[in-house]
């Protein structure tokens, strides 16, 4: 499995089996961003240091820009949407996707700093 697949499936970067988030549903009202302290499979520390996931803002931002670019092409060029409705639509879509974007940003961030250990999967 590729690194991209593991990021998108929100798996542990070290063993690629454990789940990064306690709850599967990003839209559950309580605890949707809760992460276990350690990977349940390989015991990788998910809370590497205080404030570690603040850096995930840097990985979330390009995701937002990509979504905005794709929606801009579809809505402005494809549907020739009025500019006022375009901005409302973009704001609503990004607001609704925020829990997913935050989770992906965190997954990308931890995958940058923690390497995959193939020996863990061979056991």
| Count of discrete structural domains | 1
In which range does the helix fraction lie? 40-55%
By DSSP, the count of extended strands is: 0
The best one-word shape is: elongated
The value of Rg in angstroms is: 17 Å
Elements, N to C (H/E): HHHH
The portion of residues forming beta strands comes to: under 5%
- Helix and strand content put the structural class at mainly alpha
Name the poorly predicted regions.
none
Q: How many helix segments?
A: 4
Largest sheet entry: none
Distance between the termini: 17 Å
**Overall mean pLDDT:** 94
What does this entry look like structurally?
This is DUF983 domain-containing protein. Keywords: Membrane, Transmembrane, Transmembrane helix. It holds the Pfam family DUF983. It comes from Dyadobacter sediminis. The chain is mostly helical. It has one domain. The protein is built from four helices and no strands. Helix 2 (57-78) runs antiparallel to helix 3 (83-113). The two termini are 17 Å apart.
């Amino acid at each position: 499995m590729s690194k991209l697949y593991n990021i998108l499936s929100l798996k542990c970067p070290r063993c690629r089996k454990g789940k990064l988030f306690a709850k599967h549903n990003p839209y559950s009202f309580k605890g949707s961003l809760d992460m276990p302290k350690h990977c349940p499979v390989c015991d990788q520390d998910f809370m590497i240091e205080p404030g570690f996931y603040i850096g995930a803002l840097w990985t979330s931002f390009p995701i937002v820009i990509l979504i905005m670019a794709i929606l801009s092409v579809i809505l402005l060029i494809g549907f020739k949407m009025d500019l006022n409705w375009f901005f409302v639509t973009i704001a609503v879509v990004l607001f609704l996707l925020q829990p997913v974007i935050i989770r992906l940003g965190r997954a990308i961030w931890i995958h940058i700093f923690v390497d995959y250990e193939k020996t863990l999967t061979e056991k």
